[in-house]
Specification:
The structure holds three protein chains of three kinds.
Chain A (H helix, E strand, L loop, with lengths): L1 H13 L9 H27 L2 H25 L2 H14 L1 H23 L4 H25 L2 H11 L2 H21 L1 H7 L3 H34 L2 E3 L6 E3 L3 H7 L1 E6 L14 E8 L2 E7 L2 H32 L6 H13 L2 H11 L6 H12 L19 H26 L3 H9 L4 H12 L1 H16 L3 H6 L14 H10 L4 H29 L7
Antiparallel strand pairs in A: 1-2, 3-5, 4-5
Chain B lengths: L7 H32 L3 H4 L9 E3 L1 E2 L11 E5 L9 E16 L7 E4 L4 E9 L2 E10 L2 E18 L6 E4 L5 E2 L1 E3 L4 H7 L11 H32 L5 H11 L8 H11 L6 H4 L6 H12 L3 H9 L4 H12 L1 H17 L2 H6 L10 H9 L6 H29 L7
Antiparallel strand pairs in B: 1-11, 2-3, 3-4, 3-10, 4-5, 4-8, 6-7, 7-8, 8-9
Helix pairs in contact in B: 1-14, 3-14, 4-8, 4-11, 4-13, 8-11, 9-10, 11-14, 13-14
Chain C lengths: L3 E9 L5 E10 L4 E5 L6 H9 L6 E6 L2 E2 L10 E4 L11 H11 L4 H15 L14 H13 L5 E5 L7 H18 L2 E6 L2 H7 L2 E6 L2 E6 L1 H6 L4 H6 L6 E10 L2 E6 L2 E5 L1 H6 L10 E6 L4 E3 L10 E5 L2 E4 L3 E8 L24 E8 L9 E6 L5 E3 L9
Parallel strand pairs in C: 3-8, 3-9, 6-7, 7-8
Antiparallel strand pairs in C: 1-2, 1-4, 4-5, 9-10, 11-12, 11-14, 12-13, 14-21, 15-20, 16-20, 17-18, 18-19
Classes of the chains: A mainly alpha, B alpha+beta, C alpha+beta.
Chain lengths: 536, 411, 391
């Protein structure tokens, strides 16, 4: 009976839709949600009253979702979310006590580990207590130092607003209703089966994950698709449905013949600009596109892909074969090679920027010195401007990319090596194969699957190149002269510097299709060519 | 390749192998070495040619040692000038001096004090200009010369013999350098943004990044444990469908989401706030898979035993499964840390570039070290600060994984 | 303490086959019930249904008076010992045993007291602070039992707990378990595939085959009066010898002929198997347990109840000698149960293998002819098609 009352109460509260402080989309969502919840509650109340089994499930789900939404709204009202961000200031002031807390907790953690191995030793237990004590003390210091007074006053302000109180009541009501319905005796009363109970419990566990997934991934994904069919201004309110125009604009190409070798836009259709000049069979042709930058980025990324992927994969293959042997020190090398992958793109790019510096950079210097030692290497008189020259800018980035990623790929390959049966090598040994033959005829074919995986992951990374370009390209991102523009960069500029997010969304989906298509093609190639090897 | 062979050929191969490995390792390590050295250099030191790996500072002597007062005086040498051996302290960099050219050898230059020389009264025409002839002291002898230039230069006092001094243009002398790391690079780069103190505000970004990373890692661990458990052990309707959805989500590159996520952040008023870097990333499909995989590997009977013992699913998860899942959680934490600490694209999109208070390390570094960068030494100090924690975390964690895989004791 | 009642219990898998088929079984309060049968017969499934770890497709399961079909395992007040012990690897023995009490929020001193009691009962006191990985198999098994005991449940469930132990330990643990159950008086449901365990441990034994209950009775009953061919062949070690024979009824005498042998059946057998009388001219399956043989000189029997065999193999076991012989008749087949000797059905010999147990004092050589008397008053008779006993 109480369940019915609670359900009805929540239902009434849920009918309030007067939130006028929230922006449009959220308001729409809340209104729709409130209607759905109200209807569901009516159904549930009716079912509960009549003792129908499914009613409990409906009631549970409805109340739970209501609780989640209400709690989220409540937190939003209280500014709890933005407060997390503002907490950065507090942390900044109180960083030292924070570090002490961390040390304390580390002690606890280490003690926990030691205890797991040997539950009775007094040392770890003492360490653990000391750790907690330290953390507690530092915690007090932390609170004092971080000065939460600003945050508290904001909360105090907002907590008294009627909307906030209303949301609070709804949240509490829904929570109580959920809790009540969840109880064992209610389940028995409704004759819930064990299977149903499991389903509910499974969904409950999954819910934080799933809700996050829906709200921050699936939702936005669909929204992105929808937006790509609109002309959607970032600022201002220009929003009009344009169908597939965005896609058409991105992909349109036009070819037309010209008289002169460097004809301009006039020979192309209106709206098109010159992309490149070609010379076929003695006749001048001009290739134009509506979005020249995008097509240039496609050209660039293709070149990049063709260069960077082998550069990241082949060394990994060779090195992993060496590292897979049981020679001493292999683990050390493996760890060293992996470090560039974890150091962080920005720092790495900055360092390489310095190395590539034309006058005082190490690369040019080393080339010079090598030229002195090895007679056939003929370095240019002055340092080559790696990053500001059209021809070598992209190449430089290939080097950085390969440097960063080969270690990671090596580790992937190493894992693949684990599954090559030793017997194959032993058989080859007996057959008298030399190192190179073993590598070619046994190692590489056996690593087929790993190679496939490595190629795919590296390609996907390469196709999304952005960070390195952003830092290293001069004089502006994508320079010089669009020699290093990448699709993601073009997308970013279109979305946040240009003003049309609809078009940018379309670009994003085009890029996605390219990546997907590429992966798919690789997949097919792998499948077609796969034969199971000679190991039973 | 696990058979150990003997013999000179095998040894040669082994040596060659190590050479190759070390060479590659050198290629990997070298940029970091450059970074570390640059982060300790003085600004002027960075753009020297040939580039050097060692941070240097100027050699100085205390002022009173060379007969003056004030700050320590920089020391120079005159390589190639045997008449000026040893070290010379630049006591005055703005000493007015004059260049005299002797009439019998117009190519030679005698550098003297600007007030030196006596006018003889005679004149001489050089390049159509009339110049006064002076009598100047040229190493003891008096010669006739005209004054070709008035400028300012350096007054050098010999360190060994403070009575001896020399006047010359400063750039004819080579500054003496010694090993001298400049630790202030780090304190400056960490200090709050202030054009006066040259603080760069990396300290604030550092704490912001710490905050974001910790919360993201915690969030990911919790949601992945819950989700992974649900997928692994709880039978519920539609489980495979949802799982397939998660599987598919891995294939979607992040780039497709930035625009709608951006809009969402605008709606929620989370733009330009660290929250936008945290909450959307507290769930992760990879993490969920990882935990699911691990939970699947724990024998079902342990859970059944716990169920029979009357434990609720929640109790089972936190009291039984999670303690056994330490290696997986550590892996998850490590990857989460690396991801959150190093992320750049999304922060770039969502945090206002004009707002230094809410920036994370990657953003601050990119502004500092980008196209319009000055103070390269500080930028590199910042870069070292940004790169050290993830490298340390990685090195620490990978040892931990290896250790722990053996000691699970599951039976 | 409570009774466990299966009423029309069926468990169906998604693709159709039934793991348990219409099981009706009543386990009395305080009884030691053994579920036995070959792999896949449904015994473990039935046990797990009691535990609540398997879903019941049809029928009702009651513990005591309570129908528990939809009651979660933790609420059924039962305890289970798993085949692999399922100890919590990261907890000490004390924590393992006390876990259920901890979950039930029992006070800490009470937990310690009960854990200490259980540990003492099982001889685990000195291991209380060790981790499972520091224990031997037998010790782990006892910890698993301790975990079950300490909760004082209404029913104990054991899923092949001894199968991972070596033979000597197994024998010892068997008697420990029997004594434990006798002492505690709790209802025990015990699953095993080993019929020796089944026979020695249970008050009653339920034989299952392909999800169907074949017979449930005290061990002796199963031995003396098997309900069908399968039970007859399953119980007893070495297994009962099954021979297809032709029946001749001459007045009051019944003769069975097989593979060149002719055996007169004692009238006492006909009291137990009256259906035999009407089987003149038909085939029956003769069930002679190895222990129903004796050397001619050890047993005074008329000559028409003595058979001559050529000894293919003689195993001297000490107290007895196992004589292996072959009868020149195709062996009958019984799915899933050994027919003669624990041998494979793909034996290259096309005859029926027979094993006889005789007193160990005799020395029998391979290839030697032996004259064996058959205690035909104890012989069993089955219909060759249905496997039903000819009662």
């Amino acid at each position: 009976m109480i369940g019915i009352v609670a359900g009805v109460v929540s239902m009434l509260l849920a009918s309030r839709t007067g939130d006028d402080e929230l922006p449009v989309a959220i308001k729409l969502f809340m209104q729709v949600f409130s209607i759905v919840v109200t209807v569901a509650h009516l159904v549930a109340a009716y079912g509960v009253f009549r003792g129908i089994r499914r009613a409990r499930t409906v009631s549970l789900i409805t109340n739970y979702l209501l609780f989640v939404v209400a709690a989220a709204a409540l937190l939003h009202q209280l500014g709890a979310f933005t407060a997390i961000g503002k907490f950065g200031t507090g942390l900044n002031k109180a960083f030292l006590p924070f570090l002490v807390i961390v040390v304390g907790l580390l002690w606890v953690l280490v003690a926990g580990q030691l205890r797991a191995k040997n539950p009775l030793a007094p040392g770890p237990n003492g360490l653990r207590k000391a750790g907690w004590g330290l953390a507690a003390l530092a915690g007090v210091w932390f609170v004092i130092a971080s000065d939460p007074s600003g945050m508290l006053s904001t909360i105090a302000d907002r907590i008294t607003q009627p909307v906030t109180i209303g949301t609070l009541l709804v949240a509490v009501g829904a929570a109580l209703a959920t809790r009540f319905m969840w109880q064992r005796r209610v389940a028995v009363h409704f004759g819930t089966t064990a299977a149903e109970e499991q389903t509910l419990s499974g969904l409950a566990f999954l819910s934080p994950n799933l809700i996050g997934f829906m709200f921050f991934f699936a939702g936005p994904l669909l929204f992105s698709l929808v937006v790509s069919f609109f002309e959607w201004k970032t600022t201002g309110t220009g929003r009009s449905f344009v169908g597939i125009d965005n896609y058409v604009r991105a992909l349109s190409l036009d070819v037309s013949s010209a008289d002169a070798a460097n004809a301009g836009n006039e020979v192309l259709k209106p709206g098109y600009q010159v992309l490149m000049h070609m010379d076929w069979f003695g006749q001048n042709w001009v290739l134009g596109a509506r979005d020249v930058e995008f097509w240039l980025s496609l050209r660039n990324i293709t070149i990049f892909l063709v260069l960077a992927v082998p550069a990241s994969v082949l060394p990994a293959l060779v090195l992993s074969s060496i590292l897979a042997s049981r020679l001493p020190g292999m683990r050390v090398f493996r760890a060293i090679y992996f470090v560039p992958s974890v150091a962080g793109v920005i720092g790495v790019a900055i360092i390489w920027g310095q190395l590539f510096q034309s006058t005082v950079g190490w690369i040019n210097y080393l080339i010079l010195r090598t030229g002195e030692i090895l007679p056939f290497v003929d370095p240019p008189a002055e340092g080559h401007p790696w990053l500001s020259s059209n021809s070598t800018a992209l190449l430089s980035m290939v080097v950085v990319f390969a440097w960063m990623n080969f270690g990671f790929n090596t580790v992937l390959y190493l894992a693949g090596h684990q599954s090559i049966p030793k017997e194959l090598y032993e058989a080859a040994d007996i057959d008298g194969a030399n190192v190179w033959q073993v590598f070619r005829k046994i190692t590489v074919p056996q690593l087929r699957n790993t190679t496939f995986y490595v190629l795919i992951t590296t390609s996907i990374l390469a196709l999304q190149l952005f960070d390195i370009v952003w830092i290293l390209s001069t004089p502006e991102p994508g320079g010089p002269n669009n020699a290093t523009t990448t699709p993601v960069l073009a997308l970013y500029e279109e979305a946040f510097q240009g003003n049309d997010q609809g078009y940018a969304s379309a670009l994003a989906w085009v890029l996605f299709l390219i990546i997907f298509g590429f992966t798919f093609a690789q997949f097919r190639q792998q499948k077609d060519g796969a034969t199971s090897g000679g190991v039973s | 390749m696990s058979v150990k062979r003997k013999g000179p050929k095998a040894t040669a191969i082994r040596v060659l192998t190590y050479v190759v490995l070390v060479a590659v390792a050198a290629i990997v390590i070298f940029p970091f070495v450059v970074a570390v050295s640059t982060s300790f250099k003085r600004p002027t030191d960075i753009f020297t040619y040939p580039p050097s790996l060692v941070p240097k500072q100027d050699v100085t002597v205390p002022a009173d040692q060379v007969g003056t007062d004030g700050d320590p005086v920089p020391v120079f040498t005159f390589p190639g000038r045997d008449d000026r051996p040893g070290e010379w302290a630049l006591v005055d960099a703005d000493a007015p001096l004059a260049e005299f050219r002797p009439l019998d050898d117009l190519e030679r230059i005698i550098v003297l004090d600007a007030a030196a020389g006596e006018r003889t009264g005679a004149t001489i025409t050089i390049d159509g200009e009339e110049e006064d002839v002076f009598l100047v002291d040229d190493g003891g002898t008096q010669v006739e010369a005209y004054r070709s230039r008035l400028t300012s230069g350096g007054l050098f006092v010999s360190v060994d013999d403070p009575d001896t001094s020399v006047l010359d243009l400063v750039n004819f002398a080579t500054p003496s350098k010694e090993f001298g790391p400049r630790f202030e690079n780090f304190s400056e780069v960490l200090a709050e943004r202030d054009p006066e103190t040259n603080g760069k505000g990396v300290g604030r970004s550092l704490t912001n990044t710490v905050l974001v990373t910790i919360l993201v890692v915690l969030g990911q661990i919790i949601t992945s444990i819950l989700g992974g458990y649900a997928f692994a052990r709880v039978q519920f309707r539609g489980r495979s469908t949802v799982f397939l959805m998660y599987l598919g989500s891995v294939m979607i590159p992040f780039v497709v989401l930035i625009i709608p996520l951006f809009q969402l952040m605008l709606q929620l008023n989370w733009r330009d706030n660290l929250v936008a870097l945290i909450i959307p990333f507290t769930f992760t499909a990879y993490g969920t898979f990882l935990m699911r995989q691990f939970f699947l590997g724990i024998p079902a009977e342990i859970e059944e035993a716990a169920l029979l013992d009357g434990a609720s699913r929640s109790t089972i998860l936190w009291k039984v499964m999670v303690p056994l899942a330490r290696p997986a959680i550590a892996t998850l934490a490590t990857f989460g840390f690396l991801y959150a600490w190093n992320s750049f694209f999304w922060p770039l999109v969502i945090i206002n570039s004009g707002n230094p208070d809410n920036a994370v390390l990657s953003l601050t570094l990119s502004t500092l070290g980008g196209r319009s960068s000055t103070d390269t030494n500080l930028v590199f100090a910042g870069a070292i600060l940004a790169m050290t924690p993830p490298i340390l975390v990685f090195l620490f964690a990978q040892r931990y994984f290896v250790e722990n895989s053996a000691s699970s004791g599951l039976k | 303490m409570a009774a466990v009642t299966f009423t029309n219990i069926t468990k169906r898998y998604k693709d159709g086959p039934k793991a348990v088929d219409d099981l009706n079984l009543q386990i009395a309060d305080g009884e030691f019930m053994v579920l036995v049968g070959p792999s896949g017969c449904g015994k473990s499934t039935a046990l797990r249904m009691i535990a609540g770890l398997e879903e019941i497709s049809d029928g009702t399961l009651a513990i005591g008076e309570r129908v528990v079909n939809d009651v979660p395992p933790g609420d059924r007040d039962i305890a289970m010992v798993f085949q692999n012990y399922a100890l919590y690897p990261h907890m000490t023995v004390r924590q393992n045993i006390g876990f259920a009490l901890e979950v039930a929020k029992v006070k800490k001193d009470e937990i310690n007291r009960r854990v200490d009691d259980a540990a003492e009962m099982l001889g685990l006191t000195e291991y209380l602070d060790r981790l499972p990985k520091a224990l031997s198999g037998g010790q782990r098994q006892r910890v698993a039992m301790g975990r079950a005991i300490v909760r004082s449940p209404q029913v104990f469930l054991m899923d092949e707990p001894l199968s991972n132990l070596d033979a000597k330990l197994r024998v010892q643990m068997r008697s420990d378990i029997i004594q434990l159950q006798a002492r505690l008086g709790t209802t025990m449901v015990y699953v095993t595939h080993d019929q020796v365990e089944a026979m020695t441990m249970g008050h009653r034994v339920a034989v299952m085959r392909k999800g169907v209950l074949q017979q449930v009775a005290p061990p002796q009953e199963l031995y003396l009066r098997p309900a069908n061919l399968f039970v007859a062949a399953f119980i007893g070690s070495p297994a009962m010898n099954l021979v297809t024979a032709d029946v001749t009824v001459e007045g009051d005498d019944v003769f069975c002929s097989f593979g060149g042998h002719r055996l007169r059946i004692s009238p006492k057998a006909l009291d137990r198997y009256p259906g035999l009388r009407g089987r003149h001219g038909t085939k029956v399956i003769l069930g002679i347990r190895p222990e129903h043989f004796a050397m001619e000189e050890d047993l005074e029997l008329p000559a028409d109840q003595v058979l001559t065999f050529r000894c293919e193999l003689a195993e001297a076991m000490g107290a007895e000698v196992h004589i292996h012989a072959v009868i020149d008749v195709a062996p009958p087949t019984v799915d899933g149960a050994p027919t003669t000797a624990e041998d494979d059905p793909e034996a290259l010999v096309t005859g029926t293998k027979v094993i006889a147990r005789v007193d160990g004092i005799h020395t029998v050589a391979m290839g030697q002819d032996v004259r064996l008397a058959v205690k035909t008053h104890l012989t069993h008779f089955f219909d060759p098609t249905s496997g039903e006993p000819l009662r």
